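Duplicate of #3305? Posting structure anyway:
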């Protein structure tokens, strides 16, 4: 006979997982909102890292993969550059960042 306590524990764990995931997404959006100027200024430097030798139609598997790869790399490189610039004490003083 199944234990009713175990079913409740599974539901509680799934609720915690959902809330935790929602909080992480919220933190990510708050960070992006605070750093929107930096993202705007930097993304042009790292945009289109992957380039194809031949023209690829966007509405194909290759086009979707190329776009998704460029998007992920752009986000990653922007976050790295922003964190590196934010940790530089000289830039903090010059830009009056708290």
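Output from current build:
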């Amino acid at each position: 006979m199944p234990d009713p306590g175990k079913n409740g524990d599974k539901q509680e764990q799934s609720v915690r997982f959902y809330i935790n995931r929602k909080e992480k997404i919220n933190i990510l959006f708050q960070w992006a909102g605070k750093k929107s100027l930096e993202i705007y200024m930097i993304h042009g430097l790292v945009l289109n890292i992957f380039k194809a030798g031949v023209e690829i139609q966007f509405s194909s598997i290759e086009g979707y993969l190329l776009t998704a790869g460029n998007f992920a790399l752009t986000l990653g490189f922007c976050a790295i550059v922003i964190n590196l610039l934010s940790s530089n004490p000289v830039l903090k003083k010059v830009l009056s960042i708290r």
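Confirmed duplicate; merging threads. The radius of gyration is 21 Å. The CA atoms of residues 74 and 86 lie 18 Å apart.
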